[in-house]
Each structure stands twice: as structure tokens, then as C-alpha cells.
Amino acid sequence: MGAAPASRDVTSYGMGLAAPLALFFLLFFVAPLLQLLWLSLHNDTAGLHWGLGQYLHFLTDPFSLSVLGSTLLLGAEVTAVCLVLGFPIAWLYQRVGPKVQTIIILIVLLPLLTSVVVRTFAWIVILGRQGIINATLQSLGIIDTPLKLLYTQFGVVIALAQVQMPLMTLPLITALGRIDPNLDDASCSLGAGSWRTFFRVVLPLSLPGVIAGCTLTYAAAITAFITQSLVGGGQMLFMPMYLYQQASTLQNWPFASAISIIFLLAVLAVVSVFTTLGRLSRGYGGA
Amino acid sequence: MAGRKRTLEAFSFELVMTLVAIIALILIIAPSLVVLIVSFTSGFSLRFPPPGYSLRWYAELWDAWQLHFAAKNSLIVALWATGLSVVLGVAAALAISRSQALSARLLDSLFMSPLVLPALAFGLAALMLFSLVGLPVSPLTLVIGHTVVCVPYVVRNTVAALAQLEPTLLESSAVLGASRLYTFRRIVLPLIRPGIIAGAFIAFMSSFDNVPVSLFLRDAATDMLPIRMWQDLEGKLDVTIAALSGVLIIATVAMVAVMERVTGLSRRLTN
Questions:
Q1: Which residues are listed as membrane-spanning (chain B) (predicted)?
Q2: How distant is the alpha carbon of residue A67 from its chain centre?
Q3: Under an 8 A CB cutoff, do B208 and A22 touch?
Q4: pLDDT digits (tens, 9 = 90+) for A151-206
Q5: Per-residue pLDDT for B190 more than 70?
Q6: How much is the pTM?
Q7: How high does pLDDT run on average in chain B?
Q8: Where are the domains of chain B?
Q9: Does residue A37 fall inside a structural domain?
Q10: If 0-12 CB within 10 Å is exposed, 13-18 middle and 19+ buried, where does residue A278 land?
Q11: 3-state secondary structure of A87
């Protein structure tokens, strides 16, 4: 026919359509973050004296460093729990019929879509001094005095793991779905047992999904302000609450900015480590 | 002998995996069920199991005007943020989805970055910029802030829907003489609509539930529901909040069921 010029590809749209959102992000996302960076590089609240004072303050203060450390550790613990519990869900998903598959997905999705305050509130009811766990253990005569579950690291990890589980499970389900089931049979017929097949074939091939899930779970767990503050209580301080206290209660914007930037860099560092691992694992899995 | 050892080994593997999966699924669903059951208590405290059942706390909720006010604000902001996210996000998704250009990939990373960056840091940053340019916090600043953190969901789901669209459909439509706009309205839009709706739904839910951005960008007169609930919970364990949680859980389950029918939500999120 030759009616349409070859240069006009009807299957794609012009990049111009991205311009409104790009402009919106430039004004309301990039500019604020640059302003944050700018203020963090000032030693005084008014932003008149340039300097690295805020960063020095953070990096030489044992308290600030311990907050950063415990936040990063919290993310690692939550990610580990999500991986150990989330992987079997994804594995089960691949072995059941379509009806049960839909039910599994909807169960996994539910916490993602339920209000975060509601989910956290539930954990307070479960873990509290008169909560379900303590009440059950006491009525069974296993313990005399209530266990301290709320306001502990254990409580925060388990509550966050439940809340962030979908972020781990959904990429795993996708990754496991892409593995050729014949590989499983091949491994077994060559004499490998189920456990060996799992650790030597299935797990390595699902690494891209594992890494995607870990990235999302980790980032969400360390930035989860509400769950950290309600289940952790006043005793446990993590980066988001530290940031909020400095910004809102103490009105120390330059220091809060520096905390934000350090926190942002920490998240970005973790994400880029995971992304690098992901690239390496794709090379491995694609072989 | 070896055969029996192998079946035993396979059995142990399947038993462990299935058990852990079931425990994990119970762990995921239990908190919602617990709140739902506790919210129907006839007592004054959040004991489980409740001493008796009644609808008294739901009746109490009917008169809790502070919560109604906060819920209305959250709803209005979420609707505006979702609308803005859909308009900006769908246009951007059309532009970047089929392009192999470096600029398209860079824009994609930019549009996705609010998903991993701490929302609290963004909230503070936006507040500082707004106060610098003299724009006071208001429902408008809330809508702008929420749109930034909600638009990734719309972009991602629309890009995914576009990726499944057969390019030959667009070519056939063009060959048959349809204009690009006509093809978009009659072919592209109907086919990607479930993806857009799924993205808009998740964007709406995350805006309605947003705390970290709202904390910094709301004015004193704009009380938001999740913040109101959070502050109530820090003070005391209120059974009214349990009833409100019950309403939110039931509403969420109902909406997810509708979305599953309309958009096939579960398939959409697993491929």
C-alpha cells in the first residue's frame, strides 16, 4: 500500500505524552528532594551557612548511628522472615488448581490493600499483655505472667512481615511460574531428590524473583513508619520516627534533612546491591 | 530400597513446604479476622474471644463525627489524587511502554522511584519546598503529594497492560484507515482498561491509607482518617477504632471482589 510513511510507526506513541508527568515530577518530586539536599548542607536553621555540620553530627553521634543500624537490621530480619514464609506460598500456588490459586492470591493481597493502621492495630490486639497469645498461653497454664511481646523487636518483625508479605510473594509467584516444569522432572529422573532439586534447580532459577521480592520488602520494611511506631512503641526508635521527631517536634529541619538524605542513600544502596545481584543472577539463570 | 527412600524424601519435602505455606497464609489472614471478631464485642475492652457479641460499637461509630469528617477528607483527597494519577500516568505509560529509547527507560525509573524512597522524607521535602515558594499546606498540597506517591501504580499497571497488547491490532486498524485517535479510543483503550482500573484502584487505596505524606502536607483543618486512627491508638485502645477497622476490612474485601471480577486483579499482579 505504502500509504503510511515508514517513519510513522502506528504501534507506538510519542514521548511527548510523558511530558506532563515528567514536568509534574520535576516540580513536585525532584525539586523538593534537591531542596532537601540543599538544606542538609547547611549548618544553621535559616540555611545561611554552608557546611557538613549536620552530617558530621549524625555520623559522630553513637545514638544516631545506632538508630540507623537497628533500622537496617530490622529490614534484614523482616526480609528473611518474608522469604522463608513467602517462598512456600509461591511454591504451593504452582501446585494447586486455578480456583485455589485465586484464593491464595486474594489472601496474599488482602494485607496490601487493608489500611496499614488497621493491620497494625490487629497486631496490638494479638500481641498485647491481654492479647490472644498471652491469654491462650495463660489459660493453658504454660505461663503465669504475660509475656512481653508488644514493644519488642520480635513484635515489630512479625507485624511487618505480615504486612509486607505480598511484596515478597507476588514476584516469587511470577518467577516460579516462568520455570519450565520439565526441569523439575529432569532433575528427579537424573537421580536428585526433592530437596536437592529445590536447592540446586528451583531456587537458583527463581533468583530474579527472590531478589525483586527482597528489594521491595526491605525498602518497605525500613520505611514503615506506622507499624514501627505502634508495635515498637516509644522504646524502639527507627529512622522514620527519628526523622519525624526532628522535623516535626523539634523543628530542626536541617538535621531532619540530613537524616532524610542519609536514609535515602541507605535505601538506594540496598536497592542497588539487590539490583546488581539481580543482574548477575539473570546471567546465571538464563544459562 | 532407593525408591522408597526417594518417596520418603519427596514426602518430607512436600510436607514441610505445604505446612509452612499454610502457616504463612494463616499468619497473613489472622489479624484481619481477629479485628473483625473483636469489633463485634459487647464489652468495653479488646479481649479475644469477646465476652459476647453486639453491634454497639458500630452504632457508636455512627455518631463519631470526628471520624466521619476525617473519612470525608481522606475520600476527597484520594479521589482527586487518583484522577490526577490516571490522567498523568496513562499518558506517560503510553509514551514509555513501547519505546526502547534510553530516555524512556530513565523516565520509567523516575516514575517508579517513589515506590522505594521513604515517603516520610518526600513528605518533609515537599513541605519545605511549598513553604519556600509560599504555597500554604492545604487539600491542594495533599493531592499533589499523594499523586506523586500513587502515580507509580497507575504507570506500572498500564505499562503491563500495554505490553500484552498485540501491535498487529494497531497496524490492522491503521491499514483499515482508522486515525490514531480513533484506534486509541476503539481498540487500545478498551483493551487496556482493566489494567488502568486495577492501577487506579491500588492508587486510590494507597492514597486513602497514606500517613507519611499527609503528616507533613495537611493543614490543621484537614484531618485525615489514618492519621486520626493512628493518633487515637497511641493514646488508648478504643473499641470504636475496632469497629471502624471492621468497616474498612469489609469494604476492602468487597472492593477486591469487585475488582477481581472487573479486572482479573489476581492474574494482573502475577505476570
A1: 12-40, 75-97, 109-130, 187-208, 239-259
A2: 18
A3: no
A4: 899 999 999 999 899 999 999 999 998 888 787 777 777 777 788 888 888 888 88
A5: yes
A6: 0.90
A7: 90
A8: 65-270
A9: no
A10: middle
A11: helix
Distance from the Cα of A198 to chain B's closest Cα (Å) equals 9
Residues of chain B with C-beta less than 8 angstroms from the C-beta of A244: 120, 215
Does 1.10.3720.10 match the CATH number of domain B65-270? yes
B91 lies within 8 A of chain A by CB: yes
Would you place residue A282 in the very low, low, confident or very high pLDDT band (cuts 50, 70, 90)? low
Model ipTM value:
0.91
Say if the Cβ atoms of B252 and A115 lie within 8 Å: yes
Q: Does A4 fall in a domain?
A: no
Q: Do A20 and B91 touch (CB under 8 A)?
A: yes
Name the residue range of residue A242's domain.
64-283
Confidence of residue A286 (pLDDT cuts 50, 70, 90): very low
A114, A197, A202: which to substitute to probe chain B, counting the most B Cβ within 10 Å?
Answer: A114
The residue of chain A with its CA nearest to that of B253 is A110
DSSP state of A42: B
- Across A3-12, A97-106, A152-161, B87-96, least confident range: A3-12
B88 phi, psi to nearest 5 deg? -70, -40
Contact A88 B167 (CB under 8 A): no
Question: Is residue A178 situated within a structural domain?
Answer: yes
Across the interface, do A194 and B13 touch by the CB < 8 Å criterion? yes
Peptide bond into B136 cis (omega under 30): no
* Contact call for residues B87 and B153 (beta carbons, < 8 A): no
Instruction: Fill in the amino acid letter for A124.
Output: I
Does residue A47 form part of some domain? no
CATH of the domain at A127: 1.10.3720.10
Integer CA distances (angstroms), B136 to A278, B92, B216, in order? 43, 29, 11
**Distance from the B182 Cα atom to the nearest Cα atom in chain A, whole angstroms:** 12
- Is the Cβ pair B98, A11 closer than 8 Å? yes
Spatial distance between the Cα atoms of A258 and B124, rounded to a whole number of angstroms: 11
How many structural domains are present in chain A? 1
